[in-house]
From TrEMBL:
GO molecular function, one term: zinc ion binding
Record CDD domains: PHD_OBE1_like
Lineage per the UniProt record: Eukaryota, Viridiplantae, Streptophyta, Embryophyta, Tracheophyta
Described function: Probable transcription factor.
Locations listed in the record: Nucleus
Superkingdom of origin organism: Eukaryota
Domain Zinc finger PHD-type: 227-287
PANTHER family in alphabetical order: PROTEIN OBERON 2, VERNALIZATION-INSENSITIVE PROTEIN 3
Stated name of the protein: OBERON-like protein
Length: 549
C-alpha cells in the first residue's frame, strides 16, 4: 500500500490555492470530462475548507493602497478616468481581442491601472458578487477556451500582466494574479497550454513522470502527483486519510470523490492465498483495486501521534465513511470502533488515549490468535462449551443489533435536527419575505411621495416660468417707453440748445452792428478831418460779411 500522501515539493509554496478547475476547450465531446473539470465538480464537505484561496495579503494590500491614495487626495480610479478612450480596455477585451493589439495597448498603460485591473479579476474569481461574478467568469473562460490561435508563439508576444490574466481566467486560480507570486513567462505559457501543472507548489511537467494512462494522456492539465483523478482538483492536505493512493499506478483520489463515485466497495481480497472478502478501492485511472484496511492502518501508525483532537475526529470520520458500507467483518469492526472513538473524543477523552486505543485495535485485527475460532469447528465440543459459544454469538448479535439501533436512533435524531433546522430556516425566510414586502411597500410609498413632490415642483416651475415671461414683457414695454422718452428729451435739449445759440448769435450780431456804427461815426469824423484810413476798408469788409450772415 502507498504511504500517506506527502507534499509534491516540500520546499514549495505552503498555502492553499483556489481549486476552481478550468474546462477543456469549447466543444469537448466527453460530457464526463467536462463535468470533472467544471466548477460544479464533486465537492465534499471537508474539501470545501481546503479548496479556498488563502492568500492573506491579496485584498489587504489593495485595500491599503486605495486608502493611502484616498488620503493623498485622489483615488486609483481617477487614473482610469483620465485615460484616453482609445487606451481603455476591459477583461472581455483581453479575453477575445488579438494578443498583439492588447499587448501594445497595455504597454502604454500605467502600473496603477494594471494593478487595479488584476484586482478586478481577483474579485470576480472570489465570487463575492454571487451569480453575477460566476456568470462573468464563465463567460470570460468560454471566450479564452474558444480561441484556438493561442499557441506558444502567439503567447510569447503577450504583455506580462496580459499573460497572467489569461492564465488566471483559464485555470480559475487567483494565485497567478498575486503580487508575491512571480513565475517566468515560459512557465505561464506551459501552464496555459497544459504542459505544466497549474499547482504552483508542484509545477511538474505534464504528463507527470511520463504517465501514459487514459487520464494523463488527455492533456487537459491533469497532474497525477497532486490532483484527484476524479475531480481534477488539488490541495495541500498531507498525512491524512483525505487522499487515497493506488498501489499500482500511484494516482491519488479524494476520499469523498471515491465514495460519491462508487470507487469503494467490498470484493475478494487482493492478497495471495486469502479467499475472504475485504473493503477495496478501485482506481479511476487504471481500474485496478487496492485494499484499504492496511492503508488506513499505515496512515494511523505514521501520523496519528501528531494529530490534535480536531484532526483525530476528522480522520476517524473519513475512516468511518470509508467502511460504512463494508461487508467484511474486519471492516465492520473498524467502522464501529471509529464510531465509538468519535463519541469518546467528543465527550472529552484525551487524544493520546484515543491514539493508543486505535493502534491497539489495529494490532488486535492482525493477531492470528484472535481468529483461531474458525479452525475449531471441525472437532467435537462439549455441550456446555457449545452453549457458551452460542450464548457468545447471541450476545454478539444482540450487541450488533443494539449498535445498529443506536446508529438508527442517531440518524433519526440527526434527521430530526435537520428538519427542525429547515423549519427554522423556512420561518426565517418567511420573515425575511414579509420584511422585504414591508420594505417594498415603504419604498413604493416613498416613491409616490417623491413623485407628488416632483409634480408640485413642476407646477411651481411652470408658474415661475409664466411670471418670468410676464416680467420680460413688462421690462420690454418699460424699455420702449424709456427709449421714447430719452429720444424726446434729447430732441428737446437739442432744440433748446439751438435756440440759445441763435439768441446768443443775434445778440452778438447786434453788438457788432452797434460797434460798427460807432466805428463808422468815428471814421466819418476822422475822414472829415482828412486822409483815408486803411482800417476803414477792413471794417467795411466785416460789415459786408455780417450782412451776408
Amino acid at each position: 500500500m502507498l504511504p500517506p500522501r506527502q507534499q509534491p515539493r516540500p520546499g514549495g509554496l505552503q498555502t492553499s490555492l483556489s481549486l476552481v478547475v478550468s474546462p477543456d476547450a469549447c466543444g469537448s465531446p466527453n460530457p464526463q470530462e467536462r463535468g470533472s473539470t467544471s466548477d460544479q465538480a464533486r465537492d465534499s464537505p471537508s474539501e470545501s475548507a481546503s479548496s479556498r484561496e488563502t492568500w492573506p495579503t491579496s485584498d489587504a494590500l489593495m485595500a491599503k493602497k486605495l486608502e493611502k491614495e484616498k488620503e493623498n487626495g485622489y483615488a486609483e480610479h481617477s487614473v482610469v478616468r483620465n485615460m484616453p478612450n482609445s487606451d481603455k480596455i476591459s477583461l472581455r477585451d483581453i479575453a477575445r481581442e488579438r494578443v498583439d493589439v492588447i499587448a501594445d495597448r497595455m504597454r502604454n498603460l500605467p502600473d496603477e491601472y494594471l494593478e487595479k485591473f488584476k484586482y478586478e479579476l481577483r474579485v470576480i474569481l472570489e465570487g463575492s458578487g454571487g451569480a453575477q461574478h460566476r456568470n462573468e467568469f464563465q463567460f470570460l473562460q468560454r471566450l479564452v477556451n474558444c480561441r484556438g490561435e493561442l499557441t506558444e508563439g502567439i503567447l510569447c508576444l503577450t504583455h506580462r500582466t496580459q499573460l497572467e490574466i489569461l492564465v488566471a481566467i483559464k485555470t480559475g486560480i487567483q494565485a497567478f494574479l498575486h503580487p508575491s507570486v512571480s513565475l517566468s513567462q515560459a512557465s505561464l505559457i506551459d501552464i496555459f497550454l497544459y504542459k505544466r501543472c497549474r499547482n504552483i507548489a508542484c509545477g511538474s511537467v505534464l504528463p507527470a513522470e511520463e504517465c501514459s494512462c487514459e487520464i494523463c494522456s488527455k492533456k487537459n492539465g491533469f497532474c497525477n502527483l497532486c490532483m484527484c483523478a476524479i475531480c481534477n482538483k488539488f490541495d495541500f492536505e498531507v498525512n491524512t486519510c483525505r487522499w487515497i493512493g493506488c498501489d499500482l499506478c500511484s494516482h491519488w483520489t479524494h476520499t469523498d470523490c471515491a465514495i460519491s463515485n462508487g470507487q469503494i466497495g467490498t470484493g475478494p481480497s487482493v492478497k495471495v492465498g486469502v479467499s475472504s472478502a475485504e473493503t477495496l478501492f478501485r482506481c479511476h485511472a487504471c481500474s485496478r483495486t487496492s485494499e484499504l484496511l492496511g492503508w488506513v492502518k499505515d496512515v494511523f501508525q505514521h501520523c496519528a501521534p501528531t494529530w490534535d483532537a480536531e484532526a483525530f475526529v476528522r480522520e476517524l470520520d473519513f475512516v468511518r465513511r470509508i467502511f460504512q458500507r463494508s461487508e467484511d467483518a474486519r471492516g465492520r469492526k473498524l467502522y464501529w470502533k471509529c464510531e465509538e472513538l468519535v463519541e469518546k473524543l467528543k465527550g472529552g477523552v484525551a487524544d493520546p488515549m484515543a491514539c493508543k486505543v486505535i493502534l491497539s485495535f489495529f494490532q488486535d485485527l492482525d493477531d492470528p490468535s484472535k481468529n483461531q475460532g474458525n479452525d475449531e469447528g471441525a472437532r467435537p465440543i462439549a455441550p456446555l462449551e457449545a452453549f457458551g459459544k452460542i450464548a457468545d454469538v447471541v450476545q454478539e448479535a444482540i450487541r450488533k443489533m443494539e449498535a445498529v439501533a443506536e446508529e438508527k436512533m442517531r440518524l433519526v435524531k440527526k434527521a430530526r435536527l435537520s428538519l427542525e433546522a429547515c423549519d427554522q430556516e423556512l420561518k426565517d425566510k418567511a420573515r425575511e419575505v414579509s420584511m422585504l414586502k414591508m420594505e417594498r411597500q415603504k419604498k413604493k410609498q416613498q416613491i409616490d411621495d417623491i413623485e407628488s413632490i416632483v409634480r408640485l415642483k413642476q407646477a411651481e416651475a411652470e408658474m415661475f416660468d409664466k411670471k418670468a415671461a410676464e416680467a420680460r414683457r413688462e421690462a420690454e414695454r418699460l424699455q420702449q417707453i424709456t427709449l421714447a422718452k430719452t429720444n424726446k428729451s434729447e430732441e428737446d435739449y437739442t432744440n433748446r440748445y439751438l435756440k440759445q445759440r441763435l439768441c446768443e448769435a443775434e445778440a452778438e450780431k447786434q453788438y457788432l452792428i452797434e460797434k460798427m456804427k460807432l466805428q463808422e461815426s468815428s471814421r466819418a469824423s476822422q475822414s472829415s478831418a482828412g486822409g483815408t484810413d486803411p482800417s476803414q476798408i477792413m471794417y467795411s469788409k466785416i460789415q459786408d460779411l455780417i450782412k451776408n450772415m
